[in-house]
Amino acid sequence: MSAFDELYAIAAEAKRREGGGHRRDGWQGSIGALEMFDLRRISDALEAARQSEGQPLPEHYALPDYPGQAASLAIDGKTVGSHGLTLVDGDTCYQATAGVDGVTPALQVRPRRWLRPIGDEREAWTQFGDVQRTGAKALDRALVIRATSRRAAAVFLTPALIEQLVRLGSQVRSVTVRPEAGRTFVEVLVEVRDAARAEPGIALARAAYFAMQTLVATPGGFAEASEAAALELDDVLALVERVKETVAFLAGHVARVGDGVEARLELDEPAGLHAVLRVEPAAARELRATFRGDLPLPHITRATRLEPEVGFLKRAQGLVDPKVGDAALDRAFLIEGDVALARVALADPMAALRLAGRGGSLAIDAAGLSARVPRLALDDDALLEVVVALVASWREAALVAAGFAASSRQA
C-alpha cells in the first residue's frame, strides 16, 4: 500500500468515526452530503496525486509569483528561453521568449478585437506586413495574422498552435516571431491572474516554439507557386542585379532574404546613416517595395504621414489637411502631422511625385523615414523608377534634416 492509499484510508476512517459518534448536542449523527462531497474531493485529489507520483512538478509550480522575475523555459530537457510574469498596460501577463538558429520573416498573431485603437493597428502593419487570410472563415474571424508572406503564416499556424490559441481565446495578447542576428525568436503574451494559472500560457509557448522550429526548417523560402506570387529564380536574380545597379553609388550589399530581395544601404553624406530597402512578391507578376532609413532628427514625439490623395474620401480630406506650399505636392499627398516634417519627407519633389504616382506613401517618425509602395508591376522600368525615388527621397531628406544649405536637386 502506498503512502497515498494510507492517507486516504486514515482520512476516510476519521470521517466515518466523526459522523458515527455523538455530537455535542447529544444527537447521534451520520455523514452528511457536504461531508461526502469533501470525501469525494479528497479522493479525487489523492487519485490525481497517485497518477503523478514520481513525475516532475508541472512547470507553472516553479514560475515566479511576481512580475519582473523570470525562470528558464525548458522543452524536452533543454533550456530554450525564459518565461515569467510581466505587466502590460496594467494587466498581469504570462510572457515567454524562446529562440532557435535560422532566420524567418517576422509575423504576429493576435486575437481579433474589433475595437482595437487605430494606432495599434498601424504599428502592427508597419512592423509585420499585411493581414494574411487563412481561408478558414472561423479562424480569420478569431485571429489577425500579419506577415510579409502568406506561406510563412500558413506554415507557422500548426494544428497544435491553433488548438492552444482557440483554447485561450481573448486571453492571448500576441504571439510574435522576430528574426535577429541569425536567429529567430518567438514571444508569447497571455493575460493571467497569477503564476498558478499560467499552465495554459506555458502550453501555448511550447506550441509556438515547435511552430517556429517548423517555420525555420521549411525549405525553399516563403513563397508558393500556388499563391501566384512567387518569382521564378531567373526573375529573382534579375531583380537582384537591377537593385544592385540602382544603388551602386551607395555603400551596402544586396541579397535574397526569404521570398524577397533586401538592400542594406549607407550614405556617404551625411555619414553613418543606414537604410533597408526590401522588394518582394505581392501578387501575380507584382511586387511590393518598403523602405526604412535613418534621419538625424532627434526628439520626434509624433509621426507625420503622407498618403497619396486618391479616392473621393481622401480628396475631401485634402481640402482641409495641412499644406506645404507646393501646389503639385499638396494635390498629390494627404498630410497628417507636422508640416515641417512633411517638407523634410518631400525634400525631393520629383521623387515624391513619382512615388505618389505609384500609390506610394511616406512617413517620418522617431525611427527615421519610411516609405511603402504596395503594388508595383514586375517590370524593370517601373522597379527602377520606384527604387531611385525611394533612395533619392531618403538622401534629400537626410541632407535637409542635417542642415545642409543645398542639395543635389538644387544644383
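That was protein one. Protein two is written in the same sequence-then-structure order:
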Amino acid sequence: MDFLLKTVTPKKVALFIALLAALGLERRYGHYLRAWYLARRYPSVGVTPAAGKDISTQVQNEESRRVVLRYQQVCALLSAASKRGAKVEGLKAEADAALSLNTPAYRREALRILSRVQFSIPQKR
C-alpha cells in the first residue's frame, strides 16, 4: 500500500487524465491534423506550368503518330492481301473508322481495333 501511495501522486493522475484526453481528441480530430500536415508538406501544383503543357503536347503528338503509323502498316497489309485476291473491303472500312478515333480519349480503342483488323487479314497459304 505504501508503494501505491508513493507512485500514484496527484501530478501523475493529472498527467494520465491529460494523456487519455489527448488520445481521445486525436482519435476524434486527428484526421484534420494529418490532412493539414499533408497539404503543408505536399502542396498542390495548381495550374500546369508552360513546360508541362509542352511535354503534354509532345506526348499527345507521339501517341497520335503511333496510331497513324499503325494505320499505315495495316493499310499496306490490306493492299497486299487485296492484290492476292482477298476480300478486305470491310476490314479497310474498319481501319478507316479506327483512324477517325485518333483522339486522346479513344486512342487505346483505335489501337485495339487496328490490331484486330491486322490479325483478321487473310494470309496466303
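Residues 74 and 115 are 8 Å apart (CA to CA). Keep this in mind for the problem set.
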